[in-house]
Amino acid sequence: MDKRIYFSAFLSDLPTYGRSDPNEYVQTNQIDSVNIFTVYDFNENYPAGSNVNEMLLFLDHMGETSPIEDLNEQKFISLSLKFSEIPSYDTLQFRVTGRISDEGIFEENTKLVILD
Fold it and tell me: Which end of the chain is more exposed for a tag (fewer CB within 10 A), N or C?
């Protein structure tokens, strides 16, 4: 996506007491749901408009992957994902939709990627 959506606040701005770092960030809103759809055909299994949540893998900072049972059950501030299937076409773009508590629904398209 070409922009990030941040929902956080300084602890010093919140009515909390006994904190060790008053400038620490905490998330004030949670992502209640997230869905990722293909804009263009990805492969034979995922034509344009398909939800691809089920083929996503969690990608950790060491490059290791692990399955994600349910993307909507994950609690995260930042998340890196990898596809478990290989695209059959050279044009990739995705629509990311979801809901953030107390903020409402969001929808963003990733940048268009054309593979060589």
Answer: C
| Terminal C-alpha separation, the chain | 20
* Cα torsion through 92, 34, 15, 12, rounded to 10: -20
Q: Using alpha carbons only, what angle is made at residue 80 by residues 72 and 91, rounded to the nearest 5 degrees? A: 95
AA letter at 41: D
Residues 6 or more apart in contact with residue 33 via CB below 8 angstroms: 72, 98, 99
Interatomic CA distance for residues 87 and 89, integer angstroms: 6
Cα–Cα distance list, 64 to 71, 76, 77 (Å): 17, 17, 19
CA atoms within 13 A on the CB side of 68: 25
Distance CA 24, CA 29 (A): 16
